[in-house]
Design goal:
Keywords: ATP-binding, Glycerol metabolism, Kinase, Nucleotide-binding, Transferase. With about 625 residues, the chain is an alpha/beta fold. The chain has 21 helices and 12 strands.
């Protein structure tokens, strides 16, 4: 597979891609600051549909915005979930007086960040009077992740997600309510199955081109069930079989009913499912059409199944991966259970850029807006929403919480802590990238480094208050929410939100100076709060394996009367010990679940990052 790119670095690539996407359709708006694409012409009397995820899967999801499909799409960096702050801006840019349906693929970071934004939207809509509703549908259609291996994680979301967005967008145009659309979405997921195959991993611009470092597949190899972030599949074949054999095995995973681990959707002789054959990004149309022919032929001959609709195209990609996916939807069963005609919705008109025929919005004169005009337009909309007092986005430093809780006794020390903490996660990036390349998708180090750089820049620009403990945390939190995507971004954001609550409950005296006891109490509250949003517990091989011993040790040391240096030193040692222990653990959550056992035993990247961050704090004591 080629590792050559027009843009040889990922820096700024997503921003340029979104600007190009909006240039294809004058009806679209772009809030570049938070990577949000939205339909400016959406009818406010109809439900808005919001979706998103990491970049690298285009046209999902920014390229799917338009009439009859998505109302809003929010993009993260390549393979990293957008932050809750980004998604909150997307909520405020969703023009609907009826409500919102959030659609997200089942990846931990996406589920957490979009879930957090959905909760904030519910609170804002309730305060507004409750006329608008919010629902969230999580899509998992990948049969390569069976029930046993999926465990707590569940099935990954693949091509089913953009297809569902089409159904919900058409349903919204047909005046279905939020609850009706939510039911349709959940029923659709139950009746949709997908499996993919790829002949190599995709290549992310800016990353190593060395075949060993990027874990390239051998020239004749193929992986059935490879994920859209290069996750290993259900079966690795060193010498790829004939096309008919490969497709036969994929169809068996989709249709076979006696596989208790992977039989998620019933299909029977005479069923007329909807068939989608999706290009993962690097296949020629010539081969894709040949794949369609082989799939249809085998469905007819082997399974006695005649598809009611056949689609071939590029709906959700893995950058330039040379592979394809097959999706089957039991629309008859879904229609019956949802009380909605699924075929009518799939056939409904749309003018989305990823589909041919975007006709609205053009005039006989040049009408494209400049980047500045687009940003001003989006900013003005968000400001108007914020002025109502029911915004989901906005600065937390303007609220009452920033002036509550204890004061910082030494502002200069707080500043130094921020600097060394940020520098520590910047310096550890190469190590985390190495670890995550082995056990994940390689972006853990880049994500944490980018966050550290952003917080450091905010500090140097005096955007993080140093006078009060809660204001300091809120300042850091605002930067983290805006600049750290993925699962880790959501977890850090939730922990910081819990830290604020912990500091608030640590004292009623707003003149009291924050000590190690205040911070230890707050850390324990934050840890408990975090546990409400993630099933991750010590032993699951996640950042929780380092965070839990850090918080618990800090609390026990503070309660025993230890000074700040002693307490922090013990807590940092506990964090490192917890991170080290993950070397021999089997992952139960996150993308590492799909990777399985590896020859090289490395710590969990997230846990190692937590240790590095806490070690950075300790440098000042």
């Amino acid at each position: 597979m080629s590792t050559k790119h027009v843009f040889e670095t990922s820096n700024g690539l997503v921003d340029k891609a979104l600007a190009g996407t909006v240039a294809l359709n004058p009806a679209l708006g772009l809030y570049a600051h938070h990577k949000v694409v939205y339909d400016k012409t959406h009818d406010r009397s109809k439900v808005a549909i919001l979706a998103g995820g990491g970049a690298g899967h285009e046209p999902s999801f920014a390229g799917l915005v338009g009439k009859g499909l998505l109302t809003v799409a929010v993009s993260g960096e390549i393979f990293a979930s957008p932050s809750a702050a980004q998604i909150s801006s997307g909520v405020d840019l969703a023009p609907s007086d009826k409500g919102l349906v959030v659609v997200v693929n089942r990846y931990t970071g996406d589920s957490l960040n979009f879930g957090l934004a959905a909760e904030k939207a519910r609170a804002a809509y309730a305060a507004e009077g409750g006329k608008r509703e919010v629902a969230m549908v999580i899509v998992g259609d990948d049969v390569s992740v069976g029930r046993t291996k999926g465990g707590l994680v569940g099935r990954r979301g693949l091509t089913g997600c953009p297809i569902l967005c089409k159904l919900l967008g058409a349903g919204a145009q047909a005046d279905l309510s939020v609850k009706q659309l939510e039911k349709l979405g959940n029923v659709f997921v139950e009746n949709t199955v997908t499996v993919g195959s790829s002949f190599d991993h995709c290549h992310v611009p800016g990353r190593s081109k060395d075949p060993v470092e990027r874990a390239a597949l051998a020239d004749e190899a193929v992986e059935i069930g490879m994920g859209i972030h290069n996750e290993p599949g259900v079966k690795h074949i060193e010498n790829k079989p004939e096309p008919s054999e490969l497709i036969a095995e994929m169809l068996s995973l989709l249709v076979k009913q006696d596989d208790a681990d992977r039989s998620f959707t019933p299909f029977a002789e005479g069923d007329e499912p909807i068939l989608f054959v999706n290009n993962l990004g690097g296949m020629s149309v010539l081969e894709m059409n040949a794949v369609v022919d082989e799939v249809v032929s085998q469905l007819r001959k082997t399974w006695k199944i005649e598809p009611a609709r056949v689609y071939q195209g590029t709906l959700i990609t893995s950058l330039n991966a040379p592979g394809f996916g097959i999706t089957l939807i039991n629309h008859k069963r879904a229609s019956q259970d949802a009380g909605v005609n699924v075929l009518e919705l799939i056939d409904a008109d749309t003018d989305v850029a990823a589909w041919p025929g975007v006709l609205r919005g053009w005039s006989d004169k040049a009408s494209l807006k400049t980047a500045e005009e687009l940003e001003t337009e989006s900013t003005d909309i968000i400001k108007k929403v914020q002025e109502t007092g029911f915004s989901v986005s906005g600065s937390s430093l303007k609220g009452k919480a920033a002036s509550s809780g204890p004061v910082n006794g030494d502002s200069a020390l707080v500043g130094k802590v921020i600097e060394t903490m940020c520098q520590a996660v910047i310096d550890v990036e190469p190590t985390l990238t190495k670890y995550d390349t082995i056990v994940g998708d390689g972006d853990a180090g880049e994500t944490l480094r980018h966050c550290g750089e952003s917080v450091l820049a905010a500090f140097k620009n005096n955007e993080i208050p140093l006078d009060r403990a809660i204001a300091t945390v809120l300042g850091i939190s605002a930067t983290v929410e805006s600049n750290m995507g993925g699962t880790s971004g959501a977890l850090y954001g939730l922990f910081l939100a819990g830290l604020v609550q912990g500091l608030q409950s640590s004292t009623n005296d707003t003149s009291e100076v924050a000590t190690i006891k205040h911070w230890a109490h707050a850390a324990q509250v934050a840890l408990k709060s975090l546990s409400n949003y993630t099933p991750a517990r010590p032993g699951d091989r996640t950042l929780v394996d380092a965070l839990t011993p850090f918080c618990e040790t800090l609390k026990s040391q503070a309660e025993s009367g230890a000074d700040a240096k002693t307490a922090l030193s013990a807590a940092v040692d506990a964090a490192k010990d917890g991170a080290e222990k993950t070397r021999d653990m089997t992952a139960r959550l996150g993308r590492a679940v799909y990777v399985g056992e590896t020859k090289e035993k490395v710590p969990d990247p997230g846990a190692w990052g937590v240790w590095a961050l806490t070690a950075g704090i300790l440098q000042n004591f």
